[in-house]
């Protein structure tokens, strides 16, 4: 993660874990706030296509700047 830029799935997964820990939130709680099944969060962080459409929402809900994820988002 260079200069807060997220370039790949591994960095995205790590970022989600760190942000959840900072907020003392579980994937289940994140999913509840987003109104989606918890499985979608897991799918998004593990590169499953069924979770891809939730990635931008996850970033926003966790307080990330989507611009920091541009390289990663182009790759998915």
Would you write up a description of this structure?
- It is globular, with a radius of gyration of 11 Å.
- The chain is built from six helices and no strands.
- It has helices at 9-22, 27-34, 38-45, 49-52, 55-61, 70-75.
- It has one domain: Orthogonal Bundle (434 Repressor (Amino-terminal Domain)), CATH 1.10.260.
- Helix content is 62%, strand content 0%.
- With 76 residues, it is an all-alpha fold.
Which terms would index this structure?
76 residues; mainly alpha; 434 Repressor (Amino-terminal Domain)
Helix and strand topology:
Blueprint: H1 9-22, H2 27-34, H3 38-45, H4 49-52, H5 55-61, H6 70-75
Helix pairs in contact: 2-3
Radius of gyration of CA atoms, rounded to a whole number: 11 Å
Number of strands: 0
Largest sheet: none
User: What sequence of helices (H) and strands (E) makes up the elements?
Assistant: HHHHHH
Percent helix range: 55-70%
CATH top level label = Mainly Alpha
pLDDT < 50 stretches: none
Provide the CATH topology. 434 Repressor (Amino-terminal Domain)
Structural class based on helices, strands and sheet pairing = mainly alpha
What best-fitting shape do the alpha-carbon axes yield? globular
Strand content: under 5%
């Amino acid at each position: 993660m260079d200069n807060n830029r997220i370039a790949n799935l591994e960095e995205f997964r790590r970022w989600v874990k760190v942000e959840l820990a900072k907020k003392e939130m579980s994937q289940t709680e994140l999913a509840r706030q987003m109104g989606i099944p918890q499985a979608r969060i897991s799918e998004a962080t593990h590169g499953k296509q069924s979770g891809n459409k939730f990635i931008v929402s996850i970033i926003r809900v966790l307080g990330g700047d989507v611009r920091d994820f541009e390289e990663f988002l182009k790759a998915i």
